[in-house]
UniProtKB/TrEMBL annotation:
It comes from the Bacteria. This is NAD(P)/FAD-dependent oxidoreductase. The keyword Flavoprotein applies. Keywords: Flavoprotein, Oxidoreductase. It comes from Kitasatospora xanthocidica. SUPFAM superfamilies: FAD/NAD(P)-binding domain.
């Protein structure tokens, strides 16, 4: 059988296929969601991918640590991924999902048989999608400190992950903003990328043990509350303190507060852990049958390559789940037909 081609469209277009039923609706077209859709499309499942166009890594010029894709612009990866997914018949829908609700045992379409989960996916503006299963891959947003000048440089020379950006700023004067408890470890780690690392203590109350560890690694501590980040000609120049001192730095690192975009999951009453994050098994299966969560919405530490793997793992498990349901339904039909069991 030859390959099929999916469509890219905006929800609500006349003549579109919103009224049709899908095996799986994937919410989020980042690495996790697209890789799940790719595997499911190759398994000949009917898949729709819905995306609101707000990738977390949009400010970054390049991504790193992804074998064969190191240094590729994030937007380019997603564009290639969308093309590959469409090649296997998936529908790509540019829209925002407002909420998802269980639809009852018959939402999967098909003859009577064992009860199976089904879902109605409501898109902004009114259209709905019907799905047998749902994959939520909506990611997270980075909660950044409210410091003037920080947001403007985010993803350029105000950075977060040493493994994503450390190589690009190696051997340069680096700073770590003491805006959270992870700053000390971040400064200690960055020491392997540069011999000139400064921890700007800001509001941190450092312990004697922390000061000793920083001194042992030749990480200088600069006391004083941070007022703003100073930039000239589109480049970071330094960090200004309350006393007027500007500490020259060419790049600074900050540990943001990860905030999962998980409203859809908790609208479905999926279980959370003690930290408020959705709980899943190793395949991304949540506590609600038929719902998977993958990528940063479930794991704040997942990089692009990790998220893609999570999407693939979810797709394998999900396809097995669908196949098991189909076998059970087929057995019910077979028995109802009165056919004799082969000897």
């Amino acid at each position: 059988m030859g390959e099929t081609t999916g469509t890219t469209r905006t929800a609500g277009v006349t003549g579109s296929r919103e009224s049709e039923r899908y095996d799986v609706v994937v919410v989020g077209a980042g690495a996790a969601g697209l890789n799940a859709a790719l595997v499911l499309g190759r398994a000949r499942r009917r898949v729709a991918v819905v995306d609101a166009g707000e990738p977390r890594n949009a400010p970054a010029a390049h991504m790193h640590g992804y074998l064969s894709r190191d240094g590729m612009p994030p937007a380019a990866l997603l564009a290639v991924g969308r093309e590959e997914v469409a090649r296997y018949g998936a529908d790509l829908i540019d829209a925002r999902v407002e909420h998802i609700e269980p639809a009852g045992a018959d939402a999967g379409a098909g003859p009577a048989g064992p009860a199976a989960p089904g879902f109605v996916v409501h898109l902004a503006g009114g259209p709905v999608l019907h799905a047998r299963r749902v994959v939520v891959a909506t990611g997270l947003r980075d909660g950044l400190p409210e410091l003037p000048g920080l947001v403007e440089r985010w993803g350029q020379d105000v950075l977060h992950c040493p493994y994503c950006h450390g190589w690009e700023v190696r051997d340069r004067p680096l700073g770590v903003l003491g805006t959270g408890p992870g700053a000390v470890n971040q400064a200690l780690l960055l020491r392997q990328w540069s011999a000139d690392v400064v921890l700007l203590a800001h509001t941190l109350a450092l312990t004697d043990d922390e000061r000793e560890r920083l001194a042992a690694r030749d990480v200088r501590v600069v006391e004083g509350r941070i007022v703003r980040l100073v930039s000239d000609d589109g480049r970071l120049r330094g960090v200004e303190l309350a006393n007027g001192q500007v500490v020259p730095r060419e790049a600074v690192f900050v540990f943001p507060q990860p905030v999962p975009r998980d409203a859809l999951l908790f609208g479905l009453d999926c279980a959370r852990d003690d930290n408020g994050w959705v709980t899943t098994d190793r395949t991304g299966r949540t506590s609600l049958p038929g719902v998977w969560a993958v990528g940063n919405v479930a794991d704040p530490r997942a990089q692009v390559v990790t998220a893609a793997g999570m999407g693939a793992a979810a797709a394998f498990a999900l396809d097995h789940d669908l196949a098991a349901e189909e076998v059970e339904r087929a057995v019910v039909r077979y028995r109802a037909s009165g056919a004799a069991v082969p000897a």
